[in-house]
Amino acid sequence: MAKNFIEELRWRGMLHDAMPGTEEYLMEQMRSAYVGFDPTADSLHIGNLVPIMLLAHYQRAGHRPFALVGGATGMIGDPSGKSAERNLLDEKTLRHNQEAIKGQLARFLDFESDASNAAVLVNNYDWMKDFSFLEFIRDVGKHITVNYMMAKDSVKNRISSESTDGMSFTEFTYQLVQGYDFLHLYREHDCTLQMGGSDQWGNITTGTELIRRIGGGKGYALTCPLITKSDGSKFGKSEGGNVWLDANRTSPYKFYQYWLNTSDEDAEKYIKIFTFLTKEEIEALVSEHKEAPHMRILQKRLADEVTVIVHSQEDLDNAIEASNILFGKSTSEDLKGLDEATFLDVFDGVPQAEISKDSIVSGLDIIGALAESTGFLKSNGEARRALKENSISVNKEKVKEGYSITSKDLINDQFVLLQRGKKNYFVIRIV
After folding, report:
1. What pLDDT score was predicted for residue 88?
2. Cα three-residue angle 26-121-128, rounded to 5 degrees
3. pTM score, two decimals?
4. Alpha-carbon distance 329 to 126, whole Å?
5. What is the per-residue pLDDT for 328?
6. What order of strands is seen across the sheet that includes strand 424-430?
7. 281: phi > 0 → left, psi -120 to 50 → alpha, else beta; which?
C-alpha cells in the first residue's frame, strides 16, 4: 500500500485542487503521474521547485513520477498567465536544455535505480514531431469543441485583456497539444494523473477529457497553489531577476541568501513546501523560532536544507563561510579562501575603485589608499582620525598609520577589502 500522498500535500500547504476520487485512487496501488517543464532555458529556477517537489513527494510515497520536458510545447508557448507570445526555439537548443534540466531534476528524483517507481524523463517533441497538421486536427482536434476551449480561463483572460493583441491560433491550440501529451502518456505508460500549478487546471482537464473521449479511460488532475510572498512581491525573483538552480546563473551564495532573507511568515510556509523535513521536525522548529525570532532559526534551516538539495553540502558550507565574512567574525585567511565569483557576490553593491598594479609594487600607504587613491574617505585628515580611532581594517585585520598595502594583501591577485567600523566596506580592484 502506498503512503497517502494527498495527505502529505495537504499538511504541507501544497494542495490547491484535485479531481474527486484522486486520493482513494492513489491509495489503491502504485500509479504513474507527470508534470511538465518548460525547456526554454538550460536551467530551471526556484519557481519550478514546487512542481519538482510534487514529483519528489510522489516518488517518496511509492508512486512513479514522469518529468515531461516540453520540447514541442516549448516551440509554441503556453498562454497560461502570460500576456505575450514567447520566442520559439530550435531543436538543438531544446535538446541541450533537456539534458541540463534532467541533471537538475536528478537532485530530487531517482532516475537510475531498478525500483519499479524509478523516475522517467520524456520529451513531447519525440511523439509530436511526426504528427502532420491534418492528422492532428482529424484525430485530436475533432474531439474537443471550440466552446470547451474558449471557456478555459487561460484563453478567456488573454482574449479579453486590453493590453494584448489577442491570441494567435498557435497559442489557442496549446491546450490541445498538452491534452494530447496526457493521452499519449496514458496509452504508452499507463500514466493516469497530471499535476501542475493551479494556473494549469484548464490545460490538465483538457487532457482528462481526451482520455475519456478518445482513450475510453479516466485521467485525474491535481494542482498546487501558486506560491506568493507575504509582502505581495513575486516569489522566485530577486533584484537581479530569476533565482536559478544553475550555480553559473545564480551562485550558491546568492541562492542561500535568498532563502535566508525570507520573512518569518514566508519561512514558516516555505519550510513545509521546499524541504523534506517531517511534520514533527517542522512544528518543533516553528515553536523554537517563535521563542527567539531574532535568531532566525526557521530561515537558517530553510536555507540550509534547500541549498544542500539543489547544490551540495560543500556549497552550503562555502555560502555560510561567505556570509560570516560579511556579518560575523572572520579572518584575512577566510577572505583569501573565497573564489572571485563568491567574493564579488558577497561584496555586490559595495563601492569600488580601481588602482594600477604598479602603485602597490613598492607599497601603497594606507592614508593614500583610504583617501586620495580611492575616495573611500573624504580626506587624508579623516583617514588619520579613523586610523587613530582604530576603526580601519584591511582584509578584516586592524591596521594603524604607517601600514602599506602590497601584493601580499591581494585576494585572488586582484582585490583588497577596506573597512571602517563594522559596516562600511570598500573594495580596491587592482588592474
Report:
1. 66
2. 100
3. 0.85
4. 55
5. 67
6. 352-355, 424-430, 415-420, 392-394, 397-398
7. alpha
